[in-house]
Amino acid sequence: MSTLSPARPLTNFNLILTQVRDAGLMRKRPSFYIIRLAAISIIAIALWVAAGFIASAVNSSQWWIIAGFALAGLLGVMSAQYGFIAHEASHRQVFTNNKANDWLGLILANLFAGLSYGFWLKKHNKHHQRPNQIGEDPDIAIRVLSFTTESKESKKGLERWASDRQGYLFPFLLLFTGFDLLLDSVAGMKRKDRTLKIRLLEFSLMVIRQTAPYIVMGLMFGWLWAIALWFFMMMTFGFFMGAAFAPNHKGMPLVEKNSKLDFFERQVLTSRNIRGSWLKDNLMGGLNYQVEHHLFPSMARPNLRKAHVIVSEFCRKNEITLVEMNLFSSYLAIMKHLNKVGLSNNADPFNCPMVAELRPRS
């Protein structure tokens, strides 16, 4: 006679996932992304047309240069918007077909944002598996930032100098996020885990994306000014991307390398939500709902706000800490944490009320 094995107990994640599925929030919303891509593209084309008109019609050098920098800055913002959708495609949020998501992500990331989709996919998936875990999460292994004293002490030269002052320098360093991602993207071209054909395609699209704006701006404003405008575009793009991604985990509890956490604890306790609004939802690419995004990475952006209501209520009933604050407060928290590590040789990044729950369990 066969015996039935006892049913496995439901985890917090199983329970919350059931609620979210029952609410229909795991369904794809491709129309949202198609409309959004069309709107972003129309705005980008309008910017180029307006800049061309101003460059040819305005004789005042002052207004001419202002128009050039306004164009470069807004194009940086538009590139970040393309990048956000590429990020969502990498999570299979757009289409039900994985190949369609990958092709959309590759085109948007490489041709419209100027970064390697393959590099991003590998790096970001690793982050989602082990957010804020020392030695595992690539997002806390950054060249000029240190999230532990051990990381700071291992740095030398300019990187060490910046780490010692990292809290104060943080807003300035965000301006160089785009260049850092570009360097990593180029380095990622050497990886052998993607076919040579795909690597050549990625590299070609990146070259087109990085050179075409410079050539057009050179024809409009002159080649020397085009260099300054290209750098300003990259700085705006990097600042916008960094400012959207940084509040999500930076300054939140770090997980020790050998800690054993279940999926729900890991994602909720290491993530920070930013109080949303229509404007933040659009400008931050839905990343202000970071807890929900980490719990349900394949959830379409329009459904995150509704899922937030369910997750918040679940955490409240089960006395689970869910951190949510306004955007400005999140930056202050990040800078305070970075200064704590950077300015003190004895700073303990684990000195946080929530981190007791993240210690290795016997």
Describe this structure as you would to a colleague:
α10 (196-221) packs across α11. The protein is an all-alpha fold and 362 residues long. It has helices spanning 12-22, 30-57, 61-90, 98-113, 117-129, 149-154, 157-164, 166-174, 177-188, 196-221, 223-245, 263-269, 278-283, 290-295, 301-317, 327-343, and strands spanning 272-274, 323-325. Helix content is 65%, strand content 2%. Strands 1-2 form a two-stranded parallel sheet. It has one domain. The model is unreliable at 1-7 and 346-362 (pLDDT under 50).
C-alpha-based Rg, rounded: 22 Å
Order of adjacent strands in the largest pleated sheet: 1-2
- Measured as a percent range, the helix fraction is 55-70%
Task: Count helical runs.
Answer: 16
Whole-number mean pLDDT: 86
**How many DSSP E strands?**
2
* Termini gap: 38 Å
Provide tags for this entry.
single chain; globular; 16 helices; two-stranded parallel ribbon; 2% strand; mainly alpha; 2 strands; disordered C terminus; 362 residues; disordered N terminus
Quick summary of this structure?
The protein is mainly alpha-helical and 362 residues long. It is 65% helix and 2% strand.
What is the secondary structure topology, with strand pairs?
Elements: H1 12-22, H2 30-57, H3 61-90, H4 98-113, H5 117-129, H6 149-154, H7 157-164, H8 166-174, H9 177-188, H10 196-221, H11 223-245, H12 263-269, E1 272-274, H13 278-283, H14 290-295, H15 301-317, E2 323-325, H16 327-343
Parallel strand pairs: 1-2
Helix pairs in contact: 2-3, 3-4, 3-11, 4-10, 8-16, 9-11, 10-11
